[in-house]
Design a protein that fits this description.
The structure holds three protein chains of three kinds. By secondary structure, chain A is an alpha/beta fold. Chain A contains nine helices and ten strands. In chain A, the strands form two sheets. Chain A has a six-stranded mixed sheet with strand order 6-7-8-3-9-10, sandwiched between helices. Chain A has a four-stranded antiparallel sheet with strand order 2-1-4-5, with helices on one face. Chain B has one domain. Helix content of chain B is 70%, strand content 4%. Chain B is globular. The chains are: A alpha/beta, B mainly alpha, C mainly alpha. Chains B and C meet through helix 4, helix 9 and helix 11 of B and helix 5, helix 9 and helix 11 of C.
């Protein structure tokens, strides 16, 4: 597929909703992720942010609505199919392979991009492309020194870095990051923010975050969610100035770690 | 098939299904609430039947045998839970399967040592020995109706226990959230012991009341266990309602499968392949709804 | 790495020692070891599922028994069938069966999976037990072992105890090398990832069902190889070959040896065979024939292993050898 132009809509969700029994966790949400843009989804706990990401990535089925990825309708597709179409997501609750090393975690992630893994004889490490992609991804998040360490031996913040590196290793065009900075120290957070600023040039990034400093540094668009619906969406200045948003969220909560 | 024959098979199917329900409900409760799969569950059905036979010979009547037998089975169940089962709560299902499989072997051999390997019958108590006439030649045994009624009474009792009592509330809460009821200060250990003993008792009791109509033989426990697995898979793990629906369904399919004559393209399907009907049913359910009719994703 | 080379040297030494067995030992021991190696293949095939893919199948005997029955059914009654045609057919049938059953049972997971694999193997048991397709409870005899003739040349004679042993040993070594290679390949990494965190694998773009099914089929085919060889050695097949006691026994071998190590289950198989032999020769005591009731001890042993030895014998060895204690996956 041709490289998208800056500002082109890569991911479009229209009227998506998810009901659990009588409760609407996400209610009629429409959202667009553009190439070259970081969109941050913010809101109080329970606003439906993670559910929204789950709907976009295919981890949860939609109750209603449609989703398009680079012009292609992906509504109802399984998460593995959506991933192969160029969408990568990272998890709020670290979702890694604990008994494997950091390198192997990323290599396994990158291996998914090979045409097929139904290969039974040649040793896995002889396939250079996934190994190189893994090394690159670990370097991007700044963890190359710890590549050989099993994840069980890494700190929580380091594991979060691997979480992101794994997503990067699959080389997606659209990145859905669920609280990437959660549990990270100041230095690690700064590195990730820098990474996001670099990545955004040729990706579309959707970010759920509670760290308001990071959000205002890196986001081009802010979308505020409350009670499963989008309250307001727009450039940071507009959101900062919006009274509705202040009442609902920003004024009371000062961006504690999620 | 005449109407009377159909009625007899229908009643038989329902009776078999209700017995299966008793055994399967114990299995599904233990798994749903305690998260433990107990392969030796079927062994208690066998133990119940053998107790009914040996005790009724000794005590002279079946009623006394059942009363004593249930008490013995409950005690045995609580002992087993205290000694072994409670060590399985945190373990992977694989080890639960392996350990309880070992128990099956132990129980089978103990039964062989204590009671031998012969097949036995248990005499129908005189009170139930009558038959209800349906036609000039066909009649239906009262004892079978009695079995069905007893199972139904127990089913209603279980429903009331689970839906209307405090213990039942704890059971229901425990099924959905183990950590929560622990933090509420409820004595999980005691709850589990009671649930396990209840499950065992149901299996043993089912073995005891079925003894007058089916023979008491080695391997009867394993046979009923596998069918109970099918009941639980079709009905949904942890769902007593599902166990009831699935058990009746299986009872009917199995019973009618053994008496119907079905041929397809010259190949005799029924009753030759009657033993497979239940598994084919399970295969169909798996394709349509892998968690069972009333099951939830675990 | 030094320790890896050492392990390879040790294994080759063991292989060489085993190859010498027919020249130094009595017929009884050669036959015993043949049986142990066959069960070793069976156990390794299940380890692929349980130890590496994390799929606890309690119905593995189905693929073992079916292959034995295929041999019995397609062999002429009093003449030798061809090894080169019957073996692929038998393994092929086992693989096909695993494909059909796998496509159904892999729709479930966890405890459901254990129960439905058991139920399907019981279904097959009843099929052979209750019908006359294949001799019912009487079973079928394989009077003449398959011949290995290729265009008049006879490389070995399976009727010869030593030849059969060496062929089985070669197949055992071949299966081991095959599985080791597979587990180090792209496929093997995917299977490992599925065991550790299937959800994340799907999120990363892997169609996990396909890989689990492939694993299930390969495992079934290898169980079929073991079943074929067992039918040859024993000369007889009956429904018990498909029964859950066989499924339970092979599962025990995998756990006892140490799941997820390949060599562990092979060792576990040998240990279980020896244990069974020892228990069956127990004397009578206090009026109870303990030899006849050997399953009492076997059952107790199984209970103890499940309680106390989760990582099996290999796990014990590793814990002693390494300070931190390894996990089972080498």
């Amino acid at each position: 597929m041709a490289e998208p132009a800056a500002g082109e809509v890569l991911l479009r969700a229209r009227g998506v909703a998810r009901h659990f029994g009588g409760l609407a966790a996400v209610n009629d949400v429409s959202i667009e992720c553009r190439m070259g843009e970081v969109q941050a989804v913010i809101g109080p706990n329970g606003a439906g942010k993670t559910t929204l990401i789950n709907l976009l990535s295919g981890d949860l089925p939609l109750s209603s609505g449609r989703i398009e990825l680079r012009g292609r309708d992906i509504t109802g597709l399984a998460s593995h199919q959506i991933s192969r179409l160029g969408l990568g997501r990272s998890y709020q609750k670290t979702n890694v392979f604990l008994s494997l090393t950091a390198f192997e975690n990323c290599r396994l992630a990158a291996q998914s991009r090979l045409a097929s893994s139904m290969r039974f004889f040649r040793p896995a490490l002889r396939y250079r492309a996934p190994a190189e992609a893994a090394e690159r991804a670990l370097a991007e998040v700044g963890l190359e020194a710890r590549a050989g360490a099993p994840l069980a031996a890494l700190s929580h913040g380091e594991r979060r870095q691997v979480e992101i590196a794994m997503t990067l290793a699959t080389d997606p065009k659209v990145l859905l990051l669920d609280e990437p900075l959660a549990g990270m120290g100041a230095e690690e957070s700064a590195r990730i923010v820098e990474l996001l600023q670099k990545l955004v040039r040729d990706h579309a990034i959707l970010l759920v975050e509670h760290d308001m400093d990071a959000v205002f540094t890196v986001a081009n668009v802010l979308t505020v969610m409350v009670n499963g619906s989008v309250l307001e969406s727009g450039p940071p200045k507009q959101i900062r100035a919006s009274r509705a948003v202040q009442e609902a969220y920003l004024g009371t909560d000062d961006g504690g770690q999620g | 098939m005449s109407f009377e024959t159909f009625l007899i098979q229908l009643l038989n199917g329902v009776q078999y299904g209700l017995l299966l329900f008793l055994v399967a409900s114990g299995l599904t409760l233990v798994f749903g609430i305690m998260g433990v799969i107990n392969l030796a569950h079927g062994s208690f059905y066998m133990i119940g039947a053998y107790l009914a036979w040996s005790l009724s010979e000794r005590l002279g009547n079946l009623w006394a045998a059942i009363a004593v037998g249930v008490v013995l089975a409950v005690l045995l169940g609580m002992l087993l839970e205290w000694l072994l089962i409670k060590k399985l709560y945190a373990r992977d299902h694989l080890y639960q399967v392996l350990l309880t499989y070992g128990l099956i072997l132990v129980f089978e051999e103990l039964r062989s040592v204590i009671w031998g390997d012969d097949v036995h019958g248990v005499q129908v108590p005189s009170m139930l020995a009558a038959s209800i006439p349906l036609t000039e030649t066909l009649s239906y045994p009262v004892v079978r109706l009695w079995i069905s009624v007893v199972c139904l009474v127990l089913a209603v009792g279980m429903y009331l226990l689970i839906q209307r009592t405090r213990i039942g509330m704890m059971i229901r809460a425990g099924a959905s959230n183990r950590e929560m009821i622990q933090s509420l200060g409820i004595n999980i250990q005691l709850l589990y012991r009671i649930v396990f003993a209840l499950g065992i008792a149901l299996a043993a009791f089912a073995g005891m009341i079925s003894a007058p109509v089916s023979s008491v033989f080695p391997g009867m426990g394993n046979q009923v266990l596998i069918i109970c697995f099918v009941v639980v898979v079709i009905g949904g793990i942890g769902s007593v309602k599902g166990a009831m629906v699935a058990a009746i369904l299986i009872g009917l399919v199995d019973t009618f499968g053994k008496v119907l004559h079905v041929e397809l393209g010259g190949v005799k399907l029924l009753p030759e392949l009657a033993g497979m009907t239940v598994y084919l049913l399970m295969a169909v359910v798996l394709v349509w709804r892998p968690v069972g009719i009333f099951g939830r994703r675990l | 790495m030094g320790s890896r080379k050492l392990r390879i040297v040790v294994m080759l030494a063991c292989l060489a020692a085993l190859a010498l067995l027919p020249f130094v030992a009595e017929k009884f021991y050669v036959q015993l070891f043949t049986k142990m190696l066959i069960m070793g293949i069976f156990a390794m095939s299940l380890d692929l599922l349980i130890g590496y893919a994390g799929l606890v199948s309690f119905g593995h005997a189905a693929y073992f028994g079916v292959a034995g029955y295929v041999l019995a059914l397609i062999s002429p009654q009093y003449a030798a069938a061809s090894l080169w045609t019957t073996l692929p057919v038998a393994m092929g049938v086992s693989a096909l069966l695993a494909l059909v059953i796998g496509a159904l049972v892999l729709r479930t997971s966890g405890i459901y999976f254990i129960m439905v694999t058991l139920a399907f193997s019981q279904m097959l048991f009843y099929l052979f037990h209750d019908t006359k397709i294949a001799g019912g409870t009487d079973g079928i005899y394989v009077y003449v072992r398959p011949a290995a003739d290729i265009l008049g040349w006879k490389p070995f004679d399976l009727e010869n105890v030593a030849h059969l042993y060496l062929v089985v040993l070669a197949l055992f070594a071949g299966v081991f090398v095959l599985l080791r290679t597979m587990l180090g390949s792209l496929f093997g990494r995917v299977i490992e990832g599925i065991r550790i965190n299937e959800h994340r694998m799907r999120s990363l773009g892997y169609p996990t069902f396909r890989y689990k099914l492939a694993c299930f089929v390969i495992s079934g085919a290898l169980a079929g190889l073991a079943g074929y060889l067992a039918a040859i050695q024993f000369g007889f097949v009956n429904p018990d070959m498909l029964g859950w006691h066989v499924s339970g026994l092979v599962m025990m071998m995998v756990i006892l040896g140490g799941m997820g190590t390949l060599i562990g289950p092979a060792v576990g198989a040998m240990a279980m065979m020896l244990l069974e032999l020892a228990l069956q020769s127990l004397p009578e005591f206090g009026g109870v024939n303990f030899g006849k009731h050997w399953q009492l001890f076997m059952g107790s042993f199984i209970v103890l292993v499940a309680l106390l030895l989760p990582y099996g014998l290999i796990g014990l060895l590793r814990a002693r050898g390494q300070a931190g204690g390894g996990n089972g996956h080498g």
